[in-house]
Amino acid sequence: MLINMNRLSVLLCSVGFVIISIASIKYANTLPPAERKLVLYFTSFIQFLIVIGAYYYVPNKIKDFFLVQNSNGYHSLSLRLLRFFICIVSLLAALIIVFSFTSFINIIQIDIYALIWLFLYQLILISFVEEVVFRGLIFGSLPKHSLQTIIVSSTLFSLYHWNNGLSTLPYYFSIGILLAVFRHFGFPLYAVILWHALFNVTILSLFPFVEFRFGSLAYYIVVPVAFVCLSALSGWILVSNNRK
What we know:
By secondary structure, the protein is an all-alpha fold. The protein is built from nine helices and two strands; from the N terminus they run H-H-H-H-E-H-H-H-H-E-H. The protein has helices at residues 5-28, 33-55, 60-65, 77-100, 112-141, 147-160, 169-184, 189-206, 216-242; strands at 102-104, 210-212. It has a two-stranded antiparallel sheet with strand order 1-2. The protein is globular and about 50 Å long.
């Protein structure tokens, strides 16, 4: 897997970003709740500024990757509709998979203003940052259209969530696989960011009202397998469309 020096420097900087983020979040988790929340917001904001700044310093070939949607530059209406359909269906399928392994134990109570704030926070400071780093910088720094690129970006994405516990790493790895498959087949970065944000908001809004139906171990083993299968199905549909 050949990588030129410009791409290697971007990749190494992205790995450094992941390590520093892990350390920052680990430190925040040692603080009292109020201080922890403040540090996490501050960390997210700094990450956002770093990602915005990084865009102006990466090589043009990687910068162009942020905007590319299709390797041949052709965007038929049918292809756009297919991508939109896959985004919607895969999001619903992922949520169905998640909540199939949980059961509601409390009445759902959601503050609409808190929900709007959560969505904006997840969209701008979480999903935007993570997708630009893992499916933008890292994905663009590695050879395109390769299995290694999908695996490396997904592995780093899962390690980025190290502080959530070792048992959750396969879960985040499988989510990374699904989102990397979208990018591999030319989905625009903004579509992946929006998918990520909507998924996070739904999970974070409803999880306080549920418990694991079959235990957390079963959840963090079976759900990742189901997500990988969903990724394979999405990829198969897109490959079949490309062959037409």
